[in-house]
Design goal:
Layout lengths: L7 H9 L3 E4 L3 H5 L7 E2 L5 H4 L10 E5 L3 H12 L5 E6 L4
Parallel strand pairs: 1-2, 1-3, 3-4
């Protein structure tokens, strides 16, 4: 399995190449500020709603406040067949 965590440069390169950028924080956190172009899909519902935002073949870059929720989301998505789901860590690092 490919590493799940990616650094800032790799995350930006993937998004520039067309990866889906997903913020897994709560809607309230998302409204307070988010990375440009990000879509809010809270980690609590990502398993039920990811198909509305990305296909299994898409590259997905996830982030949150600390990196913990995005790590959980990336691991969940990988277990669901999304082989190119990556944890970019914290929004502050974006």
């Amino acid at each position: 399995m490919t590493d799940i965590f990616i650094d800032r440069e790799k995350a930006h390169a993937l998004v520039a190449a067309g990866a889906k950028l997903i913020d897994v924080r709560t809607p309230e956190e998302f409204e307070e500020g988010a990375a440009p172009g990000a879509v809010n899909v809270p980690v609590q519902v990502i398993g039920q709603t990811i198909q509305d935002h990305a296909a299994e073949s898409d590259t997905i870059v996830l982030y949150c406040r600390s990196g913990a929720r995005s790590d959980l989301a990336a691991r969940m998505l990988r277990s669901f067949g999304y082989a190119k789901a990556y944890n970019a860590g914290r929004l502050a690092d974006w």
